[in-house]
Structures are given as C-alpha cells and as structure tokens.
Amino acid sequence: MDAQKVVLAGRLALTGVLWRMSGKTTGVYCRAVKKHWCETVFQSPQRLFCNVSAPGQNRCFFHTSTPGQKRWFFHISTPGQNRCLYHTSTPGHHRWLSNNSTPGQNRCLTHTSTLGQNRCTSTPGHCRWYSHASTPGHRRWYCHTATPGPHVCIVGSGPAGFYTAQHILKNHKTARVDIYEKLPVPFGLVRFGVAPDHPEVKNVINTFTNTAANDRCSFLGNVTVGKDVTVAELRQAYDAVIMSYGADADKEFGIPGENLPGVYSARAFVGWYNGLPQDKHLAPMLDTDTAVVLGQGNVALDVARILLTPLSILKKTDITDHAAAALETSQVKTVYIVGRRGPLQTAFTIKELREMTKLPDCRPVLDPADFTGLEDKVKSLQRPRKRLTELLIKTSQTGGATAQETQRLDQATREWGLKFLRSPLEILPTQDGTRISAIRLGVNRLEGSDSSARAIPTGETEVLSCGLVLRSIGYKSVPIDDSVPFDSQKGVIPNTAGRVTGCKGLYCSGWVRRGPTGVILTTMTDGFETGKAVVDDLTTGVLQPLGGVRGQEWIQPLLHKRGIQAVTFEDWNKIDNEEMMRGEKVGKPREKIVEVKEMLQVALSGR
Amino acid sequence: MASSVLFPASARFLSGFRHFSRLSRAAPASFTSLCRPHNHSLSTTARNFSQPTPRAEKAKVTVHYSMADGSTVTVQSKEGENLLDIAIENDLDIDGFGACEGTLACSTCHLIFQQPIYDQLEEPTDEELDMLDLAFGLTDTSRLGCQVCVTKALDGLTVKVPEGVADARDV
Questions:
Q1: Worst-scoring range by mean pLDDT, A22-36, A139-153, A307-321, A357-371?
Q2: Of A96, A244, A545, B108, which has the fewest CB atoms closer than 10 Å, so is most exposed?
Q3: What average pLDDT score do residues A353-363 get?
Q4: What is the DSSP string of A88-103?
Q5: Residue in A166, A141, A158, A116 with CA at minimum distance from that of residue A248
Q6: What's the Cα-to-Cα distance from A454 to each of A17, A97, A444, A451, B124, rounded to whole Å?
Q7: Is-contact B54 B150, C-beta < 8 A?
Q8: What's the CA angle centered on B51, arms A15 and A95, to 5 degrees?
Q9: Is the CA virtual torsion B109, B110, B116, B119 positive or negative?
Q10: Interface contact A45-B32, CB threshold 8 A
Q11: What pLDDT is stored for residue A125 in this prediction?
Q12: Distance of alpha carbon A492 from alpha carbon A514, whole angstroms
C-alpha cells in the first residue's frame, strides 16, 4: 500500500494524521477535532479548527485556546507534496518545525517565505528526509549525527517512563531513548488508570506524543521485559537501563472470603472499565443494591463514582463498551467507602471528593457524629487537609446550600457514604455460596492524631449487608527479573535518587521507585529526578559509553529470533486512529480495542 | 487560503460552546471563556482567523517571569491572555509547565504573585484552590497560571516560578 502519513505535533495535540493512498487523499483525521474527513467541523472550538475543502486539498487549522491566534497550519496542495508550516502569531511569518531533536541543528528552523521551499540540508548533524524501510512509503525526519550518542532504555511507557525520557532527551543532546512496553499501546495508567470521566488529565498524552516524535526516541510496544528479553540483555545493549514499570499487582487483606465471587480488586475493576486487556473478562456482579469499597484513596472514589454516575454521562466518555453495557443494568444504589482510620487520615484529594458531592442524582450520606469536635481542630491543620476536612464537614451537614440543591439531594436515587474506623474481618457468602451477602467489619479507635495516627481494634464488630466488594487499599509493584534488586517489604526497587543500589547503569523511576502513591505531578517530579541522575552519570563519565552496535539495533534481531514483533509509535498511531474512528461512530472520544491480538492486527496492518 | 465557508458555522458553534462551558464544571478549554477580557465578540475573531489583517488592537501587557534559577524573563503579551499560554507562546523553559493544558487537572502551572498584585486578581474558584492544594511550595499568594488572565492594570507584573519541584522534595 502506498500510504503516506504526516503527523503534526504541537503543544496542544498530536493534532492530525493524514493518510494518502495512491496519490489520492482518502481521509484526514484530526485528533483534537475527533473527526474523520472533517469538513468545517468544530469540536472544541476555542482550540481547534479543521477544514477539508476539496479532495487533494486538505487544510487543518488548529486554533489555540486564545481566540484569534493561529498555531498549526497544514496544507497539502499537490499530491506528493507535503508541507508542514508553523504559523506563529505574527501574520506572514512561517517556519519549519518538523523536527526538534538532534544536537546542534535538531531544530530545522529554516525560515521560508516561499511556501513549499524546503531548505533542510543533508550535512551531518543536520536533518533530512529519508525513507523508512519498515513502513513502505513512510518517510520521517532523520537526523545524522557524527558520533552516535549513548543508548538509554526505559522499561514501561507510563507517565514515569515518558517523563524520564522527556528529561533525558531535553538535557542530553545525543542520547537515544528506547521505551519498551509490554502492551502494544503506550501511556500506562494514563490510558488504563485515569478515569474515563477525567479526560482532561489525559492531556499529558500530548506531551508524551511530542516526546515520542523526537527522532532520538523510539517506542517498542508488545515486548515484555523479563520474558521476551531479559534485563541482563538490555544492560548489555544499553548504557543506562531505567525501570519504570509501575505497580501492576495489588495489596490484599488476607481475610476469609476475599476470593468469593463478588469481591474484586479495584485495580482490576478500573482495568475492566478502562479496557486493560487482562481485565476484560472481569464481569463484576452489579446485580446488587449495595457495594462496599474498602479503602479511602482516590482510586476508591474513582470506582465509587463510576458505579454511581448516570450512564448518560459515562456513555460520552471513552469507557469500554462492555463496561458501559454492564453498568447500564447495574442495580447498585448505595456505595459505602470504608476506611480503617478517621476523617483526618483519608488519602483521597479534595478534587475527587468535591466531584462526589456534585454527582448528579446522587446524595452523600455522612454521619455528622464522625466529625464532631473537628471544627475546632480544623483551624490548626495545613491548608490541603484543612480545606478537605471543611468540605467533609460541610457535606455531612444535612441539606444543600440552596433550596434547589436541597431538592436535588432529596430527589436523588443513589447515595454514597464514608465509613470511618472500620477494618474488614471477613466477607460472608450467601447460603448457597454463589456470591457474597455481607461483610463483617471490626470497629477501631485511633491512637494518636494527625496523619500518623494508628487504628487499634476495639473488639467490637458489625455486619454490613452488601453484594459487591471492591478492595482498594493500594497497588503493589512486583520484581521483574532476578537480576534487579527488590525490596519486597516496601514493594520498591531500592535506590538513591533513582540510581538502583549496587547496580551501576541501572535506574528506576515512578511507582516502582517510590511506591504507588501520588498524582501525575509527583510522578513527573520523580521522572525528572531519575532523568537528571542518568544525564549526570552520562556526562560526568560515571557511565562509560559501550560503543559499537547497541540499543535497539542490538535488541531487535534478538526479538526477531524469538518471534516477537515490536510495535512502533507509528503503529500505535494506527491503533489510536482506529479507536477514535470507532468511537466517533458511537458518539465517544474513542472506543478502545481491548484484545491484544486485535491491537496487533491494526498496528501491523499495511506493513 | 482558507475557505470562507468556515466562519459562519464557527461563530455559531463558538457562542454555543461558550454558553455550555459556563455551565460545565470542568469542561476542557472552558478556562479562557472564564477570563473576562475575552467576552468580546468571538465572531470577530473567527472572521479574522486566517487573514493577516490585524484585529482590534488589544492593550499590550509586559510580564516578568522570575525563573527558578534566579533569572528573569520579560515577555510581551496581550490583555486577556492567561499566564500559562503566555509562557508557552514565548517558549519559556519551565519543565513540565501546564501538563494538563489549562484544564484544571494538575498544578504544574503554579505561579507565585506579589501580595499587591495577588489582591488585584479575581478570587480563585474552589476548583482552582483544590488543585493548588497539591502544588509543591504552596504560598498564600499562589495561583495557577492558566486561571489568571493579564489585564492592562497588571502591566509590568512579576510572577515567580516556584523552585523546581524536584528540589522541593530533595530535603
């Protein structure tokens, strides 16, 4: 197939992908506009415009958030001719911005007042077009470098991996970064963890996509490190190897009944509604009126919110089709979110709590007694905890702030509540043992106050009827390979500032380094810190360059021999487009492909 | 160069979207519409979209970004632009700035203001304060850059980019 593709990258989005076959334009897909063959279409009009006026003449206009300002301008007038213009806010000023990677002349910033004039040189160190062998007809910017730089390998393509890559590519001018990923699709928990009704959090994908567009960065999906290739092999091939594979197991209570039908880990439940291939068959039992979520972190609130959000809202998100269908018949009316400690020790953040208080057709049921005496204490708390506690107290007071709000709460058909100072002791089956009927909770008291307070059992117990239990007490990292040290007590790879203890050239980043907590900002910080350690070690000579044929050129033949077909970022773009096209047909931003086999089919099509 | 067919539809859709975005709590891209200075006709904007003719002149505002490394970068912006977009437009080198692209889903565009300037700004919303709570190095005069639009009255203001987030955790 004679397909040509041009990818536009910008701050706002990897904005458009254009396919041309046999010299004739067959379609334009604008990612941000989420439209195929878009003709005067506006999805998010304060940001982006897209227009296709005539076959063979395609135009994509991308409008920034500031009205009146132009950013990306893409124009193909003659088949076979590609032009990528960056239009700054100064009218009439165009420049090439096809590439911003390699040392020295990475940025091909040739001013050209004559459209179509391409003045990129092929001098070493400069950039030129070259034909990509693996995809026929596919061309990409390639940058010559006189001396090949060091090779860096990142294991895991979630936010930790991408932020680490970003820092290294920015601060080391010749390093090449290869990101390995078990699945054929990148972005880890941004794709499989972030709730479908939080699309704005997923905007970081645009930054990651820009990182992947860097010529010194490669994505190798569908490669399981530890199975398809060992860490030892990677360390032979790369000057530095970074573990950022996250935490994909979960903590358990080890209580009777934990494995009964109707008890699930929140991690699997999240994977199920977010299209994680391994969780697609979860089929949680939603034919019950009461669900109990054990744990009081943001994941607990996420799963509670998904259980309680009206389907009309969820249907417009990228929630998987199978989850939407199951939630449509869900009987769940009440969700209890249970924590072993008190209101001052909850782990969720205020944004997620505020969302719960505003859920349509849903009412919070908090026991005011849980908050007695806190009004005085609240004043001495640090701002985040203070505002969170104030919101909890306010929510616990009966009625809304306005008559309208009170009416909304009174008419709600669903409800949620927080239960404090309760630890699960046993999950009880129904008489026939086919599902669960209740959970027995032990009542605790607190020893100490503030965040370090400990829960001490009082010996009292109570039974709460429920038909669904979601265990949400945290994710857990697991060892990847015997050659990498692992602290199973803390569930992390032992390290100092990202350098793995006792293993020169081995690094770690993200949850596997720090433990499974924190928001995207925490992981970004973490990634930058590990990236800095790598760059420092590469530039100060701590790591001696391996030289010779290294990096993926060394690994790819190994994979080939083992029958593993690595998925590139260009391949992922095909999956991405396919998903968005499927989503468009049903009025969603995307319909995720949930089978690895199908992902590979789409990814490797046309090769 | 651009099709003129584009614009009537855009104007209609834009105004519809603006209305919607006010009602919606966290609609992406709604933040600019919250900036008062933008409330003038958007159709004017659209009409001028692909034409080099200058649109109605907006007052220029000088902004000084006091960077984490101690240097100061001075940039020109126009009234109504927010401090995140201004930083991006001017290629300011701040690691990870604006990760969620101004949709109130992170706190990476955290900026610190001088008290007199802070007092002139419109009150932050609960949602902005919620995100600020998670910012490293939070101060009493902290705001999110994406939520603060510059006005002529703020001309010459200095905003401080907080210490590198990594440093804050190094202690």
A1: A22-36
A2: A545
A3: 96
A4: -SSTT-EE--S-B-ST
A5: A158
A6: 54, 56, 9, 9, 36
A7: no
A8: 50
A9: positive
A10: no
A11: 36
A12: 6
Residue A545 confidence (pLDDT): 79
Does residue A365 have a pLDDT over 50?
Answer: yes
Measured between beta carbons, the chain B residues lying within 8 angstroms of A383 are 133, 138
- How distant is the alpha carbon of residue A369 from its chain centre? 38
Q: Could you tell me the pLDDT band of residue A81, with boundaries at 50, 70 and 90?
A: very low
Which residue has 């300011």 as its token pair? B92
Q: Are B155 and B64 in contact (CB under 8 A)?
A: no
pLDDT exceeds cutoff 50 at B66:
yes
- Section A118-141 average pLDDT: 38
Distance between CA atoms of residues A601 and A565, nearest Å: 11
Nearest residue of chain A to residue B133 (CA atoms): A384
Across the interface, do A384 and B133 touch by the CB < 8 Å criterion? Answer: yes
Q: Cβ B14–A529 below 8 Å, yes or no?
A: no
- Secondary structure (3-state) at A436: strand
Evaluate whether A286 touches A327 at the Cβ level (below 8 Å). yes
Q: Which residue has the higher pLDDT, A45 or A275?
A: A275
Domains of chain B: 60-160 (3.10.20.30)
Report the pLDDT value the prediction gives residue A108, as an integer from 0 to 100: 32
A110 burial (CB, 10 Å; 0-12 / 13-18 / 19+) is middle
- Contact across the interface for B29 and A47, Cβ inside 8 Å: yes
φ/ψ of A103, rounded to 5, equals -55, 150
Choosing among 1.10.510.10, 3.30.160.40, 3.30.1340.30, 3.50.50.60, the CATH entry for A253-473 is 3.50.50.60
Which residues of B are less than 8 Å from A42 in CB distance? 9-10, 13-14, 17
Secondary structure of chain B as H, E, C letters: CCCCCHHHHHHHHHHHHHHHHHHCCCCCCCHHHHCHHHHCCHHHHHHCCCCCCCCCCCCEEEEEEECCCCCEEEEEEECCCEHHHHHHHCCCCCCCCCCCCCCCCCCCCEEEECHHHHHHCCCCCHHHHHHHCCCCCCCCCEEEHHHCECCHHHCCEEEECCCCHHHHHHC
pTM (whole model) above 0.90: no
pLDDT at A338 over 70: yes
Report the residue from B46, B81, B103 with minimal CB separation from A66: B81
Amino acid at position A123, single letter: T
Whether A151-248+477-567 and A253-473 share one fold: the answer is: no
Instruction: Flag the least confident range among A397-411, A499-513, A516-530, B108-122.
Output: A397-411
Confidence of residue A250 (pLDDT cuts 50, 70, 90): confident
Domain A151-248+477-567, classified CATH 3.40.50.720, yes or no = yes
Measured in angstroms, the CA of B1 and the nearest CA of chain A are apart by 9
Identify from B4, B5, B7, B10 which residue to disrupt to test chain A contact, counting A C-beta atoms within 10 A and taking the largest count: B10
Whole-number CA gyration radius for chain A: 26
A103-112, B47-56, B73-82: which has the highest mean pLDDT? B73-82
Provide the pLDDT for residue B87.
Answer: 94
- Inter-chain contact B165–A59, Cβ cutoff 8 Å? no
Contact A569, A219 (CB under 8 A): yes
User: How far is C-alpha B138 from the geometric centre of its chain's CA atoms?
Assistant: 19
Residues in chain A with CB shorter than 8 Å from the CB of B49 are 49, 61, 63, 68, 70
- Nearest by CB to A520, from B38, B101, B106: name it: B106
Q: Are A203 and B17 within 8 A, CB to CB? A: no
* Mean of all residue pLDDT scores within chain B: 72
Question: Where along chain A do its domains lie?
Answer: 2-145, 151-248+477-567, 253-473
Contacts of A46 in chain B (CB under 8 A): 14, 17-18, 21, 29, 32-33
- pLDDT at residue B26 in the model: 35
